[in-house]
Amino acid sequence: MTIRLPPLARTVPATSQQETPANDAEIMTSYALSDIYADLTWRNLIHQSTDEANLPQWLLGNSRTVYAGFDPTSDSLHIGNLMPLMMLRRFQRAGHRPIALAGGATGMIGDPSGKSAERNLLSVEQLQANLQAIDGQLRGILDFDCGDQSAVVVNNFDWMRSFSYLDFLRDVGKNFPVNVMLAKDSVKGRLERTDSGLSYTEFSYMLLQAFDFVHLNTKFGCELQIGGSDQWGNITSGMDLARRLGHPDTHALTLPLVTKADGTKFGKTESGAV
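Above: the chain's sequence. Below: its structure in token form.
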């Protein structure tokens, strides 16, 4: 199923004479800053955020870069992706730049957040096919031609493939206390189950997502990560890693999950996905 949204509508600022633009180049090519935090709060779209007292003003102070990640564990996005996609779109219309991260690296592992059992690993060929399909869907939703707020699609495999295992453990892994990782809901919930455990592969997912935030902060100046409420632990781990590596000004914002009738979340690998 392909998710399609109506085209983004840009607003041309009024002038005193209401001049008609002479050509397309004179039409507004970026979005003016607006109070996105107040808008999202009014819509009940914020589940949790960092620095609630100052984040609204921080977002109004300048155009920010915000990202959300989508792992290619299926050949299509699903209804559970709708909230973060709409959030990226709303941030763009409020004057910020969205980054959609297609998880070519993290998709090889699989996020344990909200999962009751370990997911099956996909072949490299299947992941590549899924990446191409999801990339096309993302490009049909966000605006890639609006000046400084033009959307960007990135693939975390592009920077993760340059890491050796030893380098990653030394540069990234040493910044993660195991006791803190074990306390995260995504890990603790799986360890408490008697019918399934948690592999080292999935346990390491948190490190990869955390490093994504640091990389995007370094390369694109990305300071805000958004995701579903089940992503809070992974996102705040990225903030903590950024702080330890000298990038202290990062923020997190999570959204309510779109769930099925039984209360479980929609997922690309879950039964009942739409």
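The radius of gyration is 19 Å.
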